[in-house]
Design goal:
alpha+beta, Creatine Amidinohydrolase, 25% strand, 4-stranded antiparallel beta sheet, 272 residues, binds cobalt (II) ion, binds 2-amino-4-trifluoromethylsulfanyl-butyric acid
């Protein structure tokens, strides 16, 4: 299926839900402390999304996913399921939030709407220098890719810039999971892979909404799916980091729909 070009009305809905998703990551930050369980983080996010935002946590029941957020700790690459295990000093954790909302949707039991998908790394207590470096380089990979998004940029350009930055620091890029188009469907075409060759692949067009969400491993790139059929870990048990934003391709650049206040990145990036 071809990528969806959003109408002005849809773009406004993506802006609203993108800000909601960002607000969940801002809200949960102070709770990410030693001793809290990922189940507790899940419940706090769930209640905030349902009660404060009057929106819906898209992961819940998505292809059978049992919780409202993904919590991926240490060597978990992505899709970690919240559990009753407590966070401990030095853990690194990705919290991945996807909010679905449409002010015109009236039936809470059959929610429709648009999606805002974003994730952030948190550190519990004092990070090791190695973990901090992996987290920083992974965020730089995402930012470098965001900064080249505009009509005409090719998917291979995005993959190449991420792969180059990660590998130049001795890290590897996970290949089995990728970014995606996003809108009234959680995962739309195209697939945005985080490795590749510049000058290849489909061109971005104004009005597309996509995520960029690189998963970068400190060790080898191979992943393994655990028996719960969700949790993805590094095969060599090395640390893994991920950051994610939802983006709108504008006429002359990109709008970061899930930007948080703490970030230095501008919401709107224009290329001459
Ligand atoms: N939020 C993830 C993504 O970035 C997808 C999670 S699917 C789930 O695409 F079912 F695991 F929640
Ligand atoms: Co995503
Ligand atoms: Co996500």
């Amino acid at each position: 299926m071809a990528a969806v070009i959003k109408t002005a009305n849809e773009i406004e809905k993506m802006r609203v839900v993108g800000k909601m998703a960002a607000s969940v990551l801002e809200m949960i930050g102070p709770y990410v402390k030693k001793g809290i369980t990922t189940d507790e983080l899940d419940k706090i996010c769930h209640d905030f999304i349902r009660t404060e935002l009057k929106a819906y946590p898209a992961p819940l029941n998505y292809h059978g996913f049992p919780k409202s957020i993904c919590t991926s700790v240490n060597h978990v690459i992505c899709h970690g399921i919240p559990t009753d295990k407590k966070l401990k000093d030095g853990d690194i954790i990705n919290i991945d939030v996807t909010v679905r909302f449409d002010e015109d949707s009236t039936d809470p039991d059959h929610p429709t709407g648009y999606h805002g998908d974003t994730s952030k790394m948190f550190i519990v207590g004092k990070p090791s220098i190695l973990a901090q470096r992996l987290i920083n380089i992974t965020q730089e990979c995402m930012y470098k890719a965001i900064k080249i998004v505009k009509p005409g940029t090719r998917l291979g350009d995005i993959g190449a810039i991420i792969q180059k930055h990660a590998e130049s620091h001795g890290y590897s890029v996970v290949r089995e999971y990728c970014g995606h188009g996003i809108g009234s469907t959680f995962h739309e075409d195209p697939q945005i892979v985080h490795y590749g060759r510049a000058g290849t692949g489909e061109e971005l067009k104004a009005g597309m909404c996509i995520t960029i969400e690189p998963m970068i491993n400190a060790g080898r790139r191979e992943s393994k799916l655990l028996k719960d059929d969700w949790t993805v870990v590094t095969k060599d048990r090395s640390l893994s980091a991920q950051w994610e934003h939802t983006l709108l391709v504008t006429e002359d650049g990109v709008e970061v729909l899930t930007l948080r206040d703490e970030e230095e990145l501008p919401r709107l990036i224009k290329h001459a």
